[in-house]
Backbone:
């Protein structure tokens, strides 16, 4: 009888040990999945935050007539955006590339209808100053001035979901 009691205690100990190990495995798996989900959420938030810096200049609001009104961008904002793209390209060690693609994080900014402003993010400080001097304000016939605006016509994303191309053109008002 004494051996049977010891055998039952040993069996219960083994069963309890297996249950504890199973519980530990379940907890480890669930915590690992939770950690992976949190990491994925953080990465998505970082990507959205990064993209927001660029796409805030795209699309627009619906006007009184029901048509889409573009978001107007000044020459100074374009230079800031180009500098942001340049800094991102340098940080990703891809500043030597010359064009965006779906497989790279290179960010390209083009301003169409202005000669020589492809890859605006690659321009020098002097070229930015020249651009600002030529595109900051418009001189009207009556001697007054008004700001010159641009608007974004195209945004493209790479396979990672990151903005990697923006195209602007002058806004005629």
Residues:
């Amino acid at each position: 009888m004494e051996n049977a009691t010891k055998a039952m205690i040993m069996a219960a100990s083994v069963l309890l040990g297996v249950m504890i190990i199973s519980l530990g495995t379940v907890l480890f798996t669930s915590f690992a999945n939770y950690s992976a989900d949190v990491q994925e959420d953080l990465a998505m938030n970082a990507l959205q935050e990064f993209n927001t810096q660029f796409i805030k200049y795209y699309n627009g609001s619906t006007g009184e007539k029901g048509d889409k009104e573009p978001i107007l961008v000044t020459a100074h904002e374009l230079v800031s955006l180009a500098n942001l793209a340049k800094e991102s390209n340098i940080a990703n060690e891809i500043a030597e590339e010359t064009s965006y693609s779906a497989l790279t994080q290179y960010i390209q900014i083009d301003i169409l209808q202005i000669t020589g402003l492809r890859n605006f993010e690659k321009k020098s400080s002097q070229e930015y100053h020249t651009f600002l001097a030529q595109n900051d304000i418009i001189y009207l016939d009556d001697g007054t001035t008004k700001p010159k605006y641009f608007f974004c016509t195209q945004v493209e994303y790479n396979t990672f979901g990151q903005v990697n191309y923006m195209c602007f053109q002058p806004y005629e008002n």
